[in-house]
Design goal:
The protein is α+β, with helices and mostly antiparallel strands. The chain has 1 helix and 9 strands.
Length: about 140
């Protein structure tokens, strides 16, 4: 009987933590969506991951040649301090916002279609031990 009660308590606790984590990501996504404006249309995806300490989230996206894209990457309720890096298929670094004070968004123009890997981690200025990484991609109309 005690074993069943412990399992129920653990399951309930996990459920509440999951809901709280999802709510945090939802709030961060709302903040981050403000960067996909001014003539940009969202690709309809919300890339999100719960990061603990020094974990790195990995996202994949295809960018089509001749198009202008905006990547917005946010964490926390202020929507900043998320470091993201864009790599080509050979894992050559194309861009990192850490060279631009962890800017929450950046615009890109690709000359040719390329599949990219985008890595995101909590920025150097982020004192939190964990956080929700949210990334949005928009393209210019």
């Amino acid at each position: 009987m005690k074993s069943i009660a412990k399992r129920i308590i653990c399951a309930t606790g996990f459920l509440f933590l999951s809901i709280a984590g999802y709510s945090q990501c939802d709030s961060t996504a709302t903040i981050c969506s403000k960067h996909i404006s001014n003539g940009f249309i969202s690709d309809g995806q919300i890339y999100r991951a719960l990061l603990l300490d020094k974990e790195v989230a990995e996202f994949h996206a295809t960018f089509y040649g001749g198009s202008t894209y905006r990547i917005a990457a946010c964490t926390g309720l202020e929507g900043k301090d998320l470091e993201f890096s864009v790599y080509d298929p050979q894992h050559n670094l194309l861009f990192t916002n850490s060279e631009f004070e962890d800017s929450p968004y950046w615009d890109f123009v690709f000359d040719y279609t390329v599949n990219c890997t985008i890595e995101a981690k909590l920025g150097h200025n982020n004192s939190a031990a964990s956080g929700c990484a949210v990334m949005l991609i928009g393209f210019k109309q």
